[in-house]
């Protein structure tokens, strides 16, 4: 008569099973329509099409733009230069405006000679505790984020025109004013292909919806 499995052997089986599940391909489907997807960190941009936007520090306006993009920039603790490159390419090429014939989503910021205002926003990686207090441990630490954010701005200027890229003041309390055009708001995720999507997703594009 076979002996029943011990607690120890059951633990080993459970551990091996979990390991195999987590090691499988991201897009593998299991019986019962269960999909195993990893939790992946990424750089985030909240992109808003604006008619105008400005940033003030200590009641003094330091940056202002007309038509263009206001981008809130969130850096994850694990972000690298690869994440910066991805977001720069997306931001400069995302088609938010109509063309000469009135067809929507055909023109990007460079084609219209518009401006981009960037604002560092570590709170994009805030999570709520059981006491509903924000926790920012997933956000990149201040000094590393300062360097990475500066590199991001430099890459944008190299990919467009230096005078067209404006920003707030890193690490300062800022008053951000904007007139959202549409409203149109999108989220760019530097690892969205791994997280389950190929393209940026429109969050809100119609004020009448």
TrEMBL record:
Signal peptide span: 1-24
Cellular localization per UniProt: Cytoplasm
EC number per UniProt: 3.1.1.96
UniProtKB keywords: Cytoplasm, Hydrolase, RNA-binding, Signal, tRNA-binding
Main subcellular localisation: cytoplasm
Catalyzed reaction equations: glycyl-tRNA(Ala) + H2O = tRNA(Ala) + glycine + H(+); a D-aminoacyl-tRNA + H2O = a tRNA + a D-alpha-amino acid + H(+)
InterPro entries xref list: Daa-tRNA_deacyls_DTD, DTD-like_sf
GO cellular component, as recorded: cytoplasm
Keyword Hydrolase tagged: yes
Molecular functions (GO terms): D-aminoacyl-tRNA deacylase activity; tRNA binding
PANTHER family: D-AMINOACYL-TRNA DEACYLASE 1, D-TYROSYL-TRNA TYR DEACYLASE
Similarity comment: Belongs to the DTD family.
Protein's UniProt name: D-aminoacyl-tRNA deacylase
Species of the source: Discostella pseudostelligera
């Amino acid at each position: 008569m076979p002996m029943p499995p011990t607690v120890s052997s059951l633990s080993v089986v459970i551990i091996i099973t979990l390991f195999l599940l987590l090691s499988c391909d991201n897009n593998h489907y299991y019986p019962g329509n269960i999909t195993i997807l990893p939790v992946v960190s990424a750089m985030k941009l909240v992109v808003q099409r604006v008619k105008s936007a400005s940033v003030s520090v200590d009641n003094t306006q330091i940056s202002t733009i007309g038509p263009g993009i206001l981008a809130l920039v969130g850096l994850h603790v694990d972000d690298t230069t690869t994440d910066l490159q991805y977001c720069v390419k997306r931001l400069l090429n995302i088609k938010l405006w109509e063309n000469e014939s009135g067809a929507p989503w055909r023109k990007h910021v460079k084609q219209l000679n518009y401006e981009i205002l960037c604002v560092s926003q570590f709170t994009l990686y805030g999570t709520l505790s059981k006491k509903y207090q924000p926790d920012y441990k997933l956000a990149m630490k201040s000094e590393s984020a300062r360097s990475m954010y500066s590199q991001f701005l430099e890459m944008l200027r190299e990919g467009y025109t230096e005078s067209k890229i404006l920003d707030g003041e890193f690490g300062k309390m800022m008053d951000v004013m904007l007139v959202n055009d549409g409203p149109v708001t999108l989220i760019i995720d530097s690892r969205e292909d791994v997280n389950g999507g190929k393209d940026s997703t429109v969050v809100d594009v119609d004020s009448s919806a």
